[in-house]
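Q: Study each token:
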Amino acid sequence: MRSEYEVKAAFLYNFTRFITWADPLSDVPDLKICVLGQDPFGDVLQQLDGRVSQGRPLALGYPESLSDSDDCQVLFVGSARSRDLPAIIGYAHDRQMLTISEIPDFVEDGGIIGYVKEGNVIRFEINLKAAQSAGLHVNSRLLELAVRVIR
């Protein structure tokens, strides 16, 4: 049985495979996944380091502050940062970052993908409107797997 964060890390990897950035990442050698705030994954995310998604190796980053996250394409927002959510989402949105979190109501607050638990099962919701306005295209296969899509 895989742990909650092994499942969330696997989802995270798959999210990178089904999102297309409007601004081509041609000048970026790798696809950078960053964890802002407390890292709930422990060393589970390390399994993603160097894996390939859309022809690019994945790299991990742990920015100390939001201003250190400019080179991230994917931003996981730790629960401890929930008070700063409006600023984080605005910042990430302007830089075409895919925002992901397990903060309750994350997608209602403008985040793009939010993890939700249904009993013992980890699912996710997608705010398609937020993704599109951030210049991200979400593959329809990913939308079909979401428990809820905000359009």
